[in-house]
Structures are given as structure tokens and as C-alpha cells.
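Aim 2 progress update. The chain analyzed this quarter is reproduced below.
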Amino acid sequence: MRIKAVLLVLIFLLFLPVNIVMGEQAASGYRIVIDIPRYSLTLFSGDTPLKTYPVAVGKPTDVTPTGSYSIINRAVNPTWHPDSQDPVPPGPANPLGIRWLGFYRGYGIHGNNDPSSIGKSISLGCIRMYNYDVSELYSIVGIGVPVEVIYGNLIEVSGERAVTAYRDIYSREKEYRNTIQEELKKLGLEGSIPQEKLGNLFEALGRGKVVFADNWAVMVNGEFLTSDTIYDRTMIFVNCDKLNGFFGITIEWNDSASTGSLMGRPVSAVISNGRLYASIADVAGILGGRLKARESIEQLDYEINFAKLEGEFLTSDIGNFKVKPDIDISLLNPLKNGRVGIAGLGAEGYSYRIYSKYGYIELFHNLP
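Predicted C-alpha cells:
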């Protein structure tokens, strides 16, 4: 929105005079990179990405300007000054939310009063964030922090036979369809994807990110996991190495039962070409979360908030997720009852990480 008319462990920065803040920001090495097609804002320390937040960007008629900028002004509970209208004071009706970080001629990174807008091209050019995310970012970055706004590559090719394509929000990629088909040809996928599915994929690409693959593709919280899947018209089986590696679980083959096993519970599984595949529906039934199948493009969206402790799956039962995440203490000590703040795990020396379909992860501790 324009004014006239954005595992982690972070430090709280005090609001200081401009010359002091600029010096500290330069020393810290913080910088922000906003990628328009990915609807993302990534906070870096030098070349190390600390955290990526989901954002909303400018709509095609009011594009977010690309280029190199820096934070030039900041405000808590900003007032919105729309063109030819009365100012909108702070509060629930203010579309700027609770924080403002200006970076260029009335454009800024700010909160919002419509959380459903995140992940869309809907603003008047500014970068919208969830209020809890922009509050966290505001506490970290000050005047002078570099802001790079890019229109990143629209195509990603993983080590698999799959092409992830992002929506060309501002129609900047000429011959985009041909470019995708060239990538498919390089991977040997030309002709492997049925024409009907291919047409559906290109149609869906006009609305958001899709994966071009000859099998069902699995997305977890909007990110591509794998297309190494088997579909038997009743279940979708997913390569267990991919599931085990990402979720920090162990799916094993049970010879006596001729099926799979996860956390002592059975899961439907098959062995193909020496690799184990498990039913993603059975896995989700144990881990939690929600599955949504998009049959026309053969894409399975898996949404799940979960925590890993020391690299192993801990729980998807995370309470107060957007305020102060907590978990059942009995997961750590069977002799105790109640819930404990998940940040306390770090205080106890545990290494943990939270994965979410949301952007929020509160990790204000142990910054080196």
C-alpha cells in the first residue's frame, strides 16, 4: 500500500538517533531482499538468510518498484494519508497495520488489517506483512538497512524431473510458455505430460505457482517437496526418503505385516525399484495437518504447522502459534503435565525449528 494517497534467532534493536543506528546497521550486516513473484521478504545477515516472511505485493496496475533502496523512515502505529481523503488514524481500520518501514518515495513495508491478502498481488505498490511479522522485523532493522526489491527468476529446476514455475505477476517474461516447454524438453518431460494436464497447468499458472511434472507433485506449505510419487487411483504414495528427510521421521517397511510403519502405527506402503513409498494420507493422519488434492494439475497441497527437535519430528500440536508458541511438556518429560513455551527449548540447550504455512516463528534467543 502506498502512503499518500513488508531458524530464527534475532536481536532486539533499540530506536537510536539516525547516525548511531546507521552505524550499527552497517556493523550488523542486516539486509532485506523482497522477491515479487515469490511473495517473499527475506532478512539476511551478510550472505546468510535468517528468515523468510510471506508478503503481499503491488497489483499489476500499481506495481511494486524494483531496485536498490534502504530503510529511510519508521513508524509505530502509523496514520494512513490516502489521496484526496481524510487521514486514517491507527486502529483496526488502518490498512497500514501496526508498523511502517519506508524505503522509497512513499513505498514501504508495513502491516495490514486484512491477513487474507498476504500471498497476493493486491496492494498499491507497498509490501504488506502479517502484523506479528512486521512487528518482529521492525524490532530488528533500523534506518539505513539495505532493501533490494527483485523480480526473481520465474522458473526453478530441482534435482528431480520437475519444473516449478511462478506466476508472471507483471507480465515481464516474454514467451514464458515457450521457456517452460524448453525446460521440460531438457528434462526429458516433453511429451510425458498429457496435453490435457499441460493445458490445465498453464491455466493454473495464471493464478499462482505450479509444478510441471509427469507424476503427482507434493507441496508442503506451498513449497515443492517431491514429484517422486506413485498414484494408483485410490492413494498417492510418496518417496519415503523425501518424507523422512523433510519431516524428521522414520517410515520403515514391516515385513511381517507387508506394509509400512511410522511411530509404531501402520501406514500403507509399497516398494518400487528398490525404494519405499508411503501413503501421504496415512502419514498426514499420524503427523497432522490438512491435505488438498488438485486433480486437474495432479498437485497435492499439504498444510501443516510442526516443530522439529534436534532434527526429529516433535509435534504438530503447537498452541498459540501466532503469539507465543507452546507444546505439551509431556513430549519432553512424560512425568510432567501442561504446556511449555517452545522458545524454552532453546533456553534448555535444545536445537529446534518450526515449519509453518504462516510466516510467524518467534525465535528471539541465542543470536551469535
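Residues 9 and 184 are 39 Å apart (CA to CA). Confidence is low (pLDDT under 50) at residues 1-27, 362-368. These observations will guide the mutagenesis experiments scheduled for the next reporting period.
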